[in-house]
Write a structure and sequence with these properties.
alpha/beta, Alpha-Beta Plaits, 2 domains, 4-stranded antiparallel sheet, 14 strands
Length: 334
């Protein structure tokens, strides 16, 4: 049975929108001028503005201590903000806490499951915390979708770390939330299980659930996210479409494999900022992707190579990964 069949309907099945008149064009999460300061003076969040669209996967990246978990905790109503506001599906998460919170499912970073409780009981109990009536069929669907059905009678202490992570997701989905927060959801999970879990996330997004995730596995954000935000020292320094971010901030490398090795870059090619690699068998030319439409100088480079008598037997390009872009962004703002 497919995930869609298992979990349908999971999004917006038990919730209306604020006042019943907010349509799909209304942001699912609206954060305005959000700040959080602690008693010792530490400023965890600084005037954060953020809009999360309905049905998107939004990845929040940042180094340790940047404010990722604090931001999620404030949005979920677990931590009080010093100033600013948060709306979830149009509901203020302070003055309309119950309405806002019941729309949110949170998968925390830490494994806090009750060791002696069975999988079925802990997931069912989580649904009850939101005042929802018992719904064994939905709990079964969630457990089957997360390949936990065969473990439903197992106590949590009997599960592997990866299975416990799945139980956390099941608990978060027990009350059919419209928004799912995943705070480092695959930390400590092996590669195969991580891939399987992301298939579940894709299936939820396809059902209309809005996904917000933090992760240290940047390749996950590169593969999964529609948009990416970068937070540093409590400030949201960038929010952009993933494709736009990689196009604007990425760089490309053109590697030219030479028919005959060189001892050094010829003076006639000095203006092209080439690097000689592979013991003289290759030249590497780096250029900004943003200049692609304006002409990167590749045509001129190839003409100059021909003029100097250097023959190229092969060439290939490589674009910066999201990880390289992220590292450069954080470094530039240090």
């Amino acid at each position: 049975m497919t995930l869609s069949a298992n979990l349908a309907p999971i999004a917006m099945a038990e919730h209306g929108t604020a006042g019943g008149d907010i349509g799909a064009g209304t942001p699912m999460i609206q954060v305005e001028r959000l700040s959080k300061a602690y008693g010792d003076g530490f400023q965890a969040l600084k005037e954060v503005d953020l809009t999360i669209r309905r049905g998107e996967i939004f990845a929040l990246l940042g180094p340790n201590g940047a404010g990722k978990t604090t931001l999620i905790s404030v949005i979920c109503g677990l931590v009080n903000a010093t100033s600013g506001s948060v709306k979830v599906d149009g509901f203020d998460n302070v003055t309309q806490y119950r309405e806002a919170r019941e729309r949110i499912g949170l998968v925390p970073q830490e494994l806090t499951n009750e060791a002696f409780t069975t999988v079925w009981d802990t997931v069912s109990f989580s649904r009850g915390l939101f005042g929802k009536p018992k719904d064994p069929a939905h709990i079964e669907n969630v457990l089957r979708a997360l390949t936990l059905w065969d473990k439903r009678d197992n106590r949590l202490l009997e599960l592997s770390g990866g299975m416990k992570r799945r139980v956390l997701i099941a608990k978060a989905l027990s009350h059919k939330p419209q928004v799912l927060f995943l705070d480092e959801p695959t930390a400590g999970v092996d590669v195969e299980l991580r891939r399987e879990m992301w298939e579940v996330v894709r299936g939820l997004r396809d059902q209309g659930v809005t996904i917000i995730l933090t992760t240290h596995y940047i390749e996950e954000a590169e593969e999964m996210a529609d948009r990416i935000g970068v937070i540093r020292r409590g400030e949201l320094v960038l929010v952009e479409e993933k494709s736009t971010l990689m196009r604007q901030l990425g760089r490309k490398e053109l590697t030219l494999h030479l028919a005959t090795p060189l001892d050094a870059v010829p003076a006639a090619l000095a203006g092209h900022d080439l690097v000689l690699t592979e013991e003289g068998h290759a030249l590497v030319y780096t250029y900004d992707v943003t200049h692609l439409d304006e002409g990167t100088g590749i045509a001129g480079l190839l003409a100059d190579l021909e003029a100097t008598g250097i023959r190229v037997k092969d060439l290939h390009t490589r674009q910066s990964s999201l990880e390289e872009i992220f590292v450069n962004l954080v470094r530039e703002r240090t």
